[in-house]
Amino acid sequence: MTGIEERLKALENEHQIRALTASFADSCLSGNAQCFEALWIADGTWTLAEPLHIESRGRDSIVKLFLELATGKRFFCQKLHSGIVTISGDTATARWILSENAANHDGSLYQSTAIYDDRLVFHDGRWLFQARYCKFLDISHTGNNS
Predict the structure, then answer these.
(1) How far is it, in rounded angstroms, from Cα 107 to Cα 146?
(2) Fewer CB in 10 Å around end: N or C, the chain?
(3) Residue 84: beta bridge partners?
(4) Phi-psi region for residue 38, left (φ > 0), alpha (ψ -120 to 50) or beta?
């Protein structure tokens, strides 16, 4: 590959990783478990650190957790504020700062600020999450506002 081809491939890879992360956020809002499932390798890991202390291993288990977390929600919106992507061959790491807002059917609200640290792999022609680790900087809940 020439220098231009290598730079173009690097840009394409970073774009695909950013699109993958945006698809994660979109799946959270839409609740689309099929789309969410397609973002992970089969033996992926999703960790939600304290105060939740949840770790899910394997795509089926990750999707089950996704559905459990969506239960009772009117909506769950994840907003990405920034991201740093580092690619090394067929693997990559990424770090994202984000905020989340949710409303439950009972009128209660949820808000958080968090950092996601990701490990990704290029598998079968596309980038997928191998591991996502969420560190919460702040979480707040408010009661029923109806």
Answers:
(1) 6
(2) C
(3) 95
(4) alpha
Environment class of 99 (CB within 10 Å of its CB; exposed 0-12, middle 13-18, buried 19+): middle
- From the CB of residue 93, how many other CB atoms can be counted at a distance below 10 Å? 16
The tokens 């288990």 sit on which residue?
61
pLDDT at position 126: 97
Residues of the chain falling short of pLDDT 70: 1, 145-146
Strand partners, 121: 91, 128
| C-alpha–C-alpha distance, residues 110 and 51, integer Å | 14
Residues 6+ apart with CB under 8 A from 6: none
Identify the pLDDT of residue 32: 96
Is 21:96 a contact under the CB 8 Å cutoff? yes
- Write out 124-136 in H/E/C secondary structure: CCEEEEEEEEEEE
What pLDDT, on the 0 to 100 scale, is given for residue 2? 73
Asked if the bond preceding 51 is cis, omega within 30° of 0, the reply is yes
Per-residue pLDDT, 143: 83
Q: Which pLDDT score, from 0 to 100, does residue 1 have?
A: 64
